[in-house]
């Protein structure tokens, strides 16, 4: 089993700088690549031992958690959806239901990409997004998915998946298919495009507006360039969009397994920096019916000449994300819940590291920090997890792109 810190260090040493899901912890995290999906990868970025569980993620009904990412190639942001399925090991027949959509500014609001990643902080410049689990979802094991349509660069589709446990794992779920359908059936199916882009592609330079984002939807910047233009024709796009519906049937979740913590012998990690002013989001209008697709040519990749390596997108580098504040609103507000545990250390700064004794630490979450044992050779001091020696890591090796000789992330 690999800890989050070990995985991040391996990530920083690689040449690939695309984005990946960080929390909740994805399946088989140590083998997860950062490249966009090919048709054969759907769903969840298929690979050998795809559904090995690195860490079971606890996420209770009605609870709000912040979904976070690692990487630097944010490709100008774009639009994301957060979905779940009742299948513990999803296939192309799985039906995905959207619990939250973000149109624009996901995974970050930036004109291009962030600078080279060198450490934990630079890996986590992307925005954290609050996502609430449906209040009436039955207990059991589900699979969570993050999907992303980038704004700048090649037309791509990203999808990472993570195992989640809703409610108690000690009691097998007795929820019938009818109960699951009652809780999730009214949610929209996950949208799919750019798989491949030659058949149906979202237009470059726009923050994509989903045909049906659902009732829980946010927009990072209401003044941004939004649109639902696609290329490939209505029939091709409609057929591809249905991939998120699978066979159109929701099953019943299994009882699941107890959530696990990273092994104590692995290096400890510290919390990603929390900005003093998190970007605000405004609720986007929910259309009464799904808008029709409109055709638009795919714009050239930022006007940069040259032939680019597969999976690389020619996006200009940005030194810092540019957020636009908007009035905070919610299409369907749900009161966040405090983590359910008796081992709670009170805290006030959400997202901050809390030192608990000499050998434990916790992350402040809704006023509560749950103690986690530190690895050997590490200690918690002044809100930071530190080691006996400070390690540094070389810059990631960069490959030259063919043609113009530009460097790719």
Write up this protein.
This protein has helices at 4-12, 120-123, 177-184, 234-241, and strands at residues 20-23, 57-58, 64-70, 78-85, 97-103, 129-132, 140-150, 158-166, 201-202, 207-208, 217-219, 226-227, 229-231, 282-283, 294-295, 344-346, 353-356, 360-363, 368-370, 372-373, 378-381, 384-387. Strand 7 and strand 8 form a beta hairpin. 7% of the residues lie in helices and 22% in strands. The two termini are 27 Å apart. It is mainly beta. It is built from 4 helices and 22 strands. Residues 1-17 form the signal peptide. Keywords: Signal.
Keywords:
409 residues; mainly beta; seven-stranded mixed sheet; three-stranded antiparallel sheet; 4 helices; 22% strand
As an assembly, this protein is single chain
> Globular, elongated, flat, extended or rod-shaped: what is the shape?
globular
- Identify low-pLDDT runs: 1-16, 261-342, 388-409
Give the helices and strands as they follow along the chain: HEEEEEHEEEHEEEEEHEEEEEEEEE
Would you count the extended β strands for me?
Answer: 22
Strand content: 15-25%
**Portion in helices:** under 10%
- What average pLDDT do the residues reach? 71
Biggest sheet statistics: 7 strands, mixed
- Major beta sheet, strand line-up: 2-8-7-4-5-11-14
Q: What Rg, in angstroms, do the CA atoms define?
A: 21 Å
Secondary structure class reads mainly beta
Number of helices: 4
Give the termini distance in whole angstroms: 27 Å
